[in-house]
Amino acid sequence: MRKLKYQFLVGVCVSMLGSLAALAQQQPQAAKAAQAKPDDKLEAPISVEVNRVNMLFTVTDKKGRFITNLGKDDFEVFESKKPQNILEFVAESDLPLRLAILIDTSNSIRDRFRFQQDAAVEFIRDVIRPQDKAVVVSFDTSPELIADLTNDVDKLEKAVRSLRPGGGTALYEAMFFAARDKLMQDQPLHKFRRAMIVLSDGEDNQSNYTRDQALEMSQKADAVIYTISTNISRQPTDGDKVLKYFSSETGGITFFPFKVEDLSQSFENIANELRHQYSILYRPDPNKPDGLWHAVDIKIKGRKDLVVRARKGYYASRS
Questions:
Q1: Sign (positive/negative) of CA torsion 201, 249, 256, 177?
Q2: I need a surface site. Which of 74, 81, 246, 264 has the fewest CB within 10 A?
Q3: Which CATH superfamily is domain 36-319 in?
């Protein structure tokens, strides 16, 4: 009799454990992005391959028109002012795209939010191809993963449409999360193009990170940052300066659509940028796995009338 009771109790315990495990697996994946102390995240291991450095960039004339008829011999690459040997060159790079779309859902953008959603959806449908993937992250008081990396445009559209404004602004934390936890997933880095689209007023009052920590993580992900300001006051703000800083440091550009009708044009301009990128691949000489920032400069031989827009360098891995 005691043996039967013991077997019964064991069976009940096993059943309860199984139920708990099943409940754990059913937790929604679109919960708030996992948060930790800034020091914890910064100490997490970051693996960046720098035996080969891939530089994505655009070339325009002084009026901003794309120049797409240049070849490998037209360019020079310098790392820390030393000439580098170009191994591969591709005009209008067709590498798979990994795109992070960050949408400010704080109270400051409530009046224009519907138009921002429409423009973002149109952009997604215009840009994402079968080989591309995008992630949607919203941020107010904290970042939230709304749609994980996917090429399913219907799922991405549904994610954007589900957003509702309200709360503070954790811009830097959202950028840090998107760069480290999403854009760096697919390796090696040089096999993909990575871009971050930030739709915000540039103000931050909630993040556990600084502006420069957000930029550093984006640079480690080799991400080009495009920013669209939601400031419609026509008066420059500190937030506008922050958005310009992120874009200029990574080879992107900042847009200021003062009217809601201009939002679609801003997204269309970004789509055109992504279609007209050159790609240069080189091996650093000398190769220094020191974990430090290495400045890179791309120049066009004998063409001072053209403008190169590229990220300003990369973080080497540490051996």
A1: negative
A2: 81
A3: von Willebrand factor, type A domain (3.40.50.410)
**More confident site: 196 or 189:** 196
Tell whether the model's pLDDT for residue 111 goes beyond 50.
yes
pLDDT at res. 95: 85
Taking a C-beta distance cutoff of 8 angstroms, is the pair 130, 244 a contact?
no
Tokens standing for 176?
Answer: 């840090």
Predicted TM-score of the model (pTM): 0.83
What's 68's DSSP letter? Answer: -
Q: 204 — phi, psi (to 5°)?
A: -135, 125
Return the domain boundaries, the chain.
Answer: 36-319
Q: How large is the C-alpha radius of gyration of the chain?
A: 23
Query: CA 110, 166, 142, 162: dihedral to nearest 10 degrees?
Result: -80
The helix, strand and coil proportions of the chain, stated in percent and rounded to the nearest 5, come to 35, 25, 35
User: Which pLDDT value is given to residue 33?
Assistant: 55
pLDDT level of residue 189 (50, 70, 90 thresholds): confident
| Strand spans (E) along 126-188 | 133-139, 143-150
- Please choose, from the candidates 229, 169, 171, 225, the residue with its C-alpha nearest in 3D space to the C-alpha of residue 201: 229
Token readout for 309 is 């827009």
Residue with structure tokens 């423009």? 119
